[in-house]
Amino acid sequence: MAQLLLSTVLCVALAGCSATPPRRYEDVKNEALAALQTVADLIPEPKTVRPRPEQEPYGCNDPLLGMNKDGAFFTGYWEVDVSEQVDIRHFIAGVRDSLGDGWRTEPQLIEVSFPQANLIQEATGVSVTIEESDRDGRKGIDLLAISRCGIEEQPTP
């Protein structure tokens, strides 16, 4: 999970929070969840998709990310258990082509020893990392999506 988060945050720092007009945080969160669902739908059956608990929004003004923007981005992490028959390496290698137009591959910023793909949904700027995982000896695929920056609405007094 730490490698997945680090590689995706680096990817977001380069591409995820684009120069488009600010959106509401709830909107960018929904874009990221929709992107996760789009990728999860491509994973062969049988599968079990488990969204992990939501994390607090992460500020786009964090100096380590170099974005210097207002607002926050959403991070969604889903675990997908798959059957032993699924060729995860083949799935990950072909996922970009399966998604079709509107998605691009981002360069691998951190070399890893397992299959991984870093993708950007061009229309939304959502970054999705897809990687092989092994949970207690069970085959799986981890999905991590990071939205572009969104402005959090303040409660009305």
Structural topology:
Layout: H1 2-16, E1 23-24, H2 25-42, E2 47-51, E3 58-59, E4 72-73, E5 75-82, H3 88-99, E6 103-105, E7 116-121, E8 126-135, E9 138-146, E10 150-151
Parallel strand pairs: 1-10
Antiparallel strand pairs: 2-5, 3-4, 5-9, 6-7, 7-8, 8-9
Any descriptors?
157 residues; alpha+beta; six-stranded antiparallel sheet; two-stranded parallel ribbon; 10 strands; 29% helix; disordered N terminus
Helix content: 25-40%
- Overall geometry: globular
Largest sheet: 6 strands, antiparallel
Q: Write the element-wise H/E pattern from the N-terminal end onward.
A: HEHEEEEHEEEEE
**What gap, in angstroms, lies between the N and C termini?**
39 Å
Rg, nearest Å: 15 Å
Major sheet: order of its strands? 2-5-9-8-7-6
Which regions have little confidence, pLDDT < 50, spanning 5+ residues? 1-19
Total E-strand runs:
10
The portion of residues forming beta strands comes to 25-35%
The overall average pLDDT, rounded, is 85
Q: Helix count, per DSSP? A: 3
Q: What structural class do the secondary elements suggest? A: alpha+beta
